[in-house]
Amino acid sequence: MSTNDPQQQQMIRDAMKAIAERKPGRTKLVYDKTQRTIVAVAAGTQTPRALNITADDADMFAVATLSSRWLREHWPQIMRDRAIAVPFSSWDDGDAFAQCDLGVQPSPSIVQGAVLLGDGVDPPQGTQLRVVLTATKDSSPDASAFIAPDGSSHRAHGWRGASGREEPIDTCFADVQPELATRRAGIFETTVLNDKSVFCIGLGTGGAHAAIELAKCGVGRFMLVDRDRLSVGNVVRHPGGISQVGRFKVNVVRDLIHEKNPDAQVSTYPVELTYENRETIKELVSQAGVVICGTDNRPSKLLLNKLCIEAGVVAVYGGAYRRAYGGQILRVRPRQSPCHQCFVAMMPDAASDLEVSSTSDADDIAYSDRPVAVEPGLSLDVLPIANMLTKLALLELLADKPTSLSILNRDYTAPWYRWLNRPEPGTEYASWPPLSDSIDEMTINRWYGIYFDRDPGCSACGDFNSTIAAEYGLDLASATLPSSPAKDH
Predict the structure, then answer these.
(1) Beta strands 110-117 and 83-91: pairing type?
(2) Residue 308 covered by a domain
(3) Is the pLDDT of residue 88 over 90?
(4) Residue 13 within a domain
(5) Per-residue DSSP letters for 201-232?
(6) Residue 367: burial class (beta carbons within 10 Å; 0-12, 13-18, 19+)
(7) Which domain holds residue 387?
(8) Phi, psi of 449, rounded to the nearest 5 degrees
(9) Looking at the structure, do residues 193 and 305 belong to the same domain, yes or no?
(10) Residue 261 in contact with residue 253, Cβ under 8 Å?
């Protein structure tokens, strides 16, 4: 099927591409008995029997993908110089080439490419992949079509390899943000989440998953806090991979967010939530539309709870039970629902049933004479909890927007949600009936919303002083309260 005729080469490629995409094409392939070879002819031409080539057979051309926005931004330079260097990530032994600027995580193999304006333009030295833009009056939509800022239409033709040994490749343009927005529009109708901000503290498996899922939904701004670095053991469950080991989790998740939503604004803080840096955390809370807490450290949760109540910002706390046999989520709407302090006071056992997934987690809850074993659960057991955490956070972000998800507000009214992956031996759930035998009883693999009241005397969200005064018969008006001790400087 080899030919030196450029027109015939292009017709053959067009025919194969149409077959691969399972679409009608402008050309088709036939067998020419006189030449004893395969040729391409116009689709309407009367010919002998056409060839039976499947889509899998036809999908044989490598493809190079470029950013339309990048090309528009650099159009003045291209018009001036007629050429511009573009590095490409090479994937799967040269089967796919993606412009490095499309994402933040390039391939280990980088190929130097160039975009050239018109035939006969010499590429920069060392160029291994050429994308030639040819002016055309054909404005029909096509993946290889590019409309320049000046309104001119161009078609892209790609070539790879050294001069004299080049082979053609398919070229397509990606307008990333419009294409992503189109996919989301079926649920959100508009880009309603572009101006929303999320503060995520604790970027283990659940917190990282929630942040990435919200990035897919189109959330425009993230503030990430976590002191830990990604370790080899984390990779079993964490979205970050082996190639990310040693990096701060905030930076790993930032890059994963940008892989899903390149225009998202992400600020990172590799610090621990403590009383000493509360002013920094307080400022971040004030900027958030919702706070997602994925840390298992109780003092950190209680401090965050206080800051969120003071700022009037909704917080969603998620966590897995030990060995991830289940998990729970607490959504706190300040001064409307029970806060995390109320939860700890009223449900101490539930608040203490935490997964110990790292050495730092074990150290936080261990006694000096009784170490705590690290017993992480499976990723697939953590993800149902992370998904629910994300959905509750998403509903808070959309509270002031009419969307297709608004109907869920009638279903998610409880402050506390519980989920069980299995009836763990040694727990109160060990005797739960099998999932297949139960209709009315509580079973595994189901979410349960649980209602309980705020503590009116809660030290975080209630009237603590009045409650204590009433209980002990104190007269607060005449009482002299001790002042806080001075801090050493």
Answers:
(1) antiparallel
(2) yes
(3) yes
(4) yes
(5) E--SHHHHHHHHHHHHHT--EEEEE--PBP-T
(6) exposed
(7) 189-450
(8) -90, 130
(9) yes
(10) no
